[in-house]
Amino acid sequence: MATVYYTASSLDGYIVDEDDSLDWLVTRDIDPDGPFHYDAFADTVGALVMGSATYEWIVKNQPGQWMYQQPSWVLTHRPGIVADGHPVQTFQGEVTDLHPKLVSAAAGKDVWVVGGGDVAAQFVSAGLVDELIVSYAPCTLGGGSRVLPIRSEWRLVESAVNGEFVCARWRIAS
Length: 174
Description:
InterPro entries: DHFR-like_dom_sf, RibDG_C, Riboflavin_Biosynth_HTPR
Number of domains: 1
GO molecular function: 5-amino-6-(5-phosphoribosylamino)uracil reductase activity
Shape: globular
CATH class: Alpha Beta
Number of helices: 5
Domain Bacterial bifunctional deaminase-reductase C-terminal: 7-147
Helix content: 10-25%
Strand order of the largest sheet: 5-4-3-6-1-7-10-9
Oligomer: single chain
Pfam family, one: RibD_C
Structural class: alpha/beta
Strand content: 25-35%
Protein name: Dihydrofolate reductase
Order of helices and strands: EEHHEHEEHEHEEEE
CATH superfamily: Dihydrofolate Reductase, subunit A
Largest sheet: 8 strands, mixed
């Protein structure tokens, strides 16, 4: 079991552009059977957590039923944010208080810190992220939301190319 921040990034380190768009990401070629593909990763996940901006992006861009089978949490000060029918819990407080609940709900599988960068930074700062997996797209955005807006040290343990992406698995440097 690990706590993993799995995400994509532009070459200059952004998750979404200044318009909160992922068009730069979802229009790219990736092999669904290739290394670091989302489906293989999702099979290892037992619980997930995200910030309110990520949750609201999902609701706006992928309306309908909740897309994840795993227990899900949103860090927010607005408990009424959850759309009707979404089996999502909200949490307000320190991530150190939430993490044991995530681990328990994951039932031996990994916890996925979906993001965004500010949420990931809280988990990294608290020493709770074991791995960082980033798929780098061949573009720069020049602005937007940073992948990880804090200083941290990582050790590269695996890398591969999948379609247009350079993918890397990093472990926290000890």
